[in-house]
From TrEMBL:
One of its GO terms (molecular function) is kinase activity. It comes from the Bacteria. SUPFAM superfamilies: Duplicated hybrid motif (SSF51261). It comes from Holdemania massiliensis. This is PTS glucose transporter subunit IIA. Its main location: cytoplasm. Residues 19-123 form the PTS EIIA type-1 domain. It is found in: Cytoplasm.
């Protein structure tokens, strides 16, 4: 099953993420994107299974059981949810392309935080499709194995 980008921007390999939790793949493999848009979309059809109170991270269980972590920014938990407007809640069913969040990335940058968005497969191996260059939400970034 293909997993699509959650945001438009510049895709980059996880090796280049400044947080070792992601660059060392402690939670799983995936991709990172430097966002050029404030809207975050569902990468798959599935269900919202986790949403941090601070709105900086959420979990999606795909229809085939794959679990994906979407983490917005690095250390943005410290912003206590201020730059995030959630459009879904735990238990909601989502389709690929559904709007999940709107994010005030300029506020995150102004506050001194990294805006990189990570999409991680936490319970599956992946095959990368695209982890560098410009990407849109219409392009798959990896395939679940």
């Amino acid at each position: 099953m293909n997993v699509y980008s959650v945001v438009q921007g510049l895709a980059k390999n996880l090796d280049n993420v400044s947080d070792p939790v992601f660059s060392k793949r402690m939670l799983g493999d995936g991709v990172a994107v430097e966002p050029s848009n404030s809207r975050i979309f569902s990468p798959v059809d599935g269900k919202i299974i986790m949403f941090f109170e601070t709105k900086h991270a959420l979990g999606i269980r795909a229809e085939d059981g794959a679990e994906l972590l979407l983490h917005i920014g690095i250390d943005t938990v410290e912003l206590n949810g201020k730059p995030f407007k959630e459009r879904v809640k735990i238990g909601d069913s989502v389709s690929r392309g559904d709007l999940l969040l709107e994010v005030d990335f300029p506020m995150i940058k102004k506050s001194g935080y990294d805006t990189t968005v990570m999409l991680i497969a936490t319970n599956r191996k992946i095959q990368l499709i695209k982890d560098t260059g410009q990407i849109s939400i219409y392009e798959p970034v990896f395939r679940l194995l």
